[in-house]
């Protein structure tokens, strides 16, 4: 199997890098991309480690971008993890995350909730995020669970919501290309937009030299899979697949739990891109299960 979207505790995933890799191996994932939010830290750690036999690590990152009033996530796959320009952009994004966290802390303090900054400083992450803030609110008894923390406090309509100054789509795509990677829009059907606005988003992503879409991922229904893979074929874009695994708590987003690309889109699969062959071995096994396992 293949899974090209996952997180470690370098961003908002629960597991340290080696444990993530071992879990993927146990689930028969042969090609795994770690794509932490705005961080390549897990890749820098893992290149010093012995990986399980038969598992290949694909370099990746998920960059938060601002497009109009939306936060759009762009995956950089097959990137050179030592590219100075990409590392500089990620360091800037990490600082934006710290600045945003300070603003969240102020908003919480005004409501009498103290200690967010201290909690965040105790974490191993490089890219501090709202999942960490949600964990703090749950620990402190202010939220019942993740969903509640986001809807009540942290989501775009939440009480403490703070906008971050993310980079533009063009900046992210340019940095990914400079690092020899491919830029794919992550989980395209999860953005709250109308059909016409979604088409405009894809048009502008293409105009900014985006390479394709993450076309199959956790919880994606068959209609959306068809829509996204058709877009890849129509626009001659590359298609990627990934679970967006964060933690074992979320059974629906487990590693490898992804629908297979339909035959109409197989030629567009990112593992057929020439860059793939420079970095990884051929994907000869079934890319993913035809339907998610229950
Ligand atoms: P951030 O990158 O810090 O702005 O946070 C975005 C991350 O929060 C996403 O990558 C998800 O992991 C997580 N997230 C967003 N919305 C929700 C939600 N409603 N419930 C749980 N996690 C969420
Ligand atoms: Mn996340
Ligand atoms: Mn994302
Ligand atoms: Mn993700």
Descriptive notes:
This protein is an alpha/beta fold and 294 residues long. The chain has 2 domains: 2-90 and 170-289, TIM Barrel (Alpha-Beta Barrel), CATH 3.20.20; 96-154, DNA polymerase, domain 1 (Orthogonal Bundle), CATH 1.10.150. Helix content is 37%, strand content 15%. The protein has 10 helices and 8 strands. Strands 1, 2, 3, 4, 5, 6, 7 and 8 form an 8-stranded mixed beta sheet that branches. Strand 6, helix 8 and strand 7 (212-217) form a beta-alpha-beta unit. Helix 5 crosses helix 6. The longest helix is centred in the first third of the chain and has 27 residues, at 84-110. The radius of gyration is 18 Å and the shape is globular. It starts with a strand and ends in a 15-residue tail after the last helix. Bound molecules: adenosine monophosphate (AMP) and manganese (II) ion (MN) (3 copies).
For this structure, the CATH topology of the largest domain is TIM Barrel
The gross shape turns out to be: globular
Secondary-structure-based class equals: alpha/beta
* Overall tally of domains: 2
Provide a count of the helices.
Answer: 10
CATH 2nd-level architecture of the largest domain? Alpha-Beta Barrel
List the SSEs and their pairings.
Layout: E1 2-3, H1 17-26, E2 31-34, H2 41-46, E3 56-67, E4 70-77, H3 84-110, H4 116-121, H5 130-139, H6 146-154, E5 167-168, H7 169-178, E6 182-185, H8 195-207, E7 212-217, H9 222-234, E8 238-242, H10 274-279
Parallel strand pairs: 1-2, 2-3, 3-5, 6-7, 7-8
Antiparallel strand pairs: 3-4, 4-6
The chain binds adenosine monophosphate and manganese (II) ion (3 copies).
One manganese (II) ion binds at residues 7, 12, 37, 131, 246.
């Amino acid at each position: 199997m293949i899974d090209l979207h996952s997180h470690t505790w370098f961003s908002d995933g629960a597991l340290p890098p080696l444990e993530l890799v071992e879990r993927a191996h146990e689930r028969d994932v042969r090609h795994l991309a770690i794509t932490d939010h705005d961080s390549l830290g897990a890749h820098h750690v893992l290149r010093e480690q012995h990986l399980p036999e038969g598992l290949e690590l694909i370099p990746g990152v998920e960059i938060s971008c601002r497009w109009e009033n939306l936060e759009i996530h762009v995956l950089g796959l097959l990137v050179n993890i030592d590219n100075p320009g990409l590392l500089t952009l990620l360091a800037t994004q990490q600082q934006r995350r710290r600045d945003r966290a300070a603003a969240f802390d102020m908003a919480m303090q005004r409501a009498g909730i103290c200690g967010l900054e201290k909690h965040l400083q105790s974490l191993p992450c490089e890219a501090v995020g709202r999942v960490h803030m949600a964990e703090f609110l749950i620990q402190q008894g202010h939220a019942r669970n993740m969903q509640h923390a986001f809807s009540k406090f942290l989501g775009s309509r939440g009480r403490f919501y703070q906008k971050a100054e993310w980079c533009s789509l063009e900046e992210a795509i340019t940095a990914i290309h400079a690092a020899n990677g491919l830029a794919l829009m992550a989980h395209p059907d999860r953005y709250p937009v109308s059909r016409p606005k979604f088409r405009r988003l894809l048009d502008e992503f293409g105009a900014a030299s985006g390479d394709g879409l993450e076309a199959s991922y956790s919880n994606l229904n068959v209609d959306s899979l068809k829509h996204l893979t058709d877009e890849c074929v129509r626009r001659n874009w590359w298609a990627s697949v990934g679970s967006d695994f964060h933690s074992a708590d979320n059974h629906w987003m487990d590693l490898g739990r992804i629908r297979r690309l339909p035959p109409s889109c197989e030629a567009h699969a990112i593992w057929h891109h020439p860059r793939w062959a420079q970095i990884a071995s051929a994907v000869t096994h079934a890319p993913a299960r035809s339907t998610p396992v229950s």
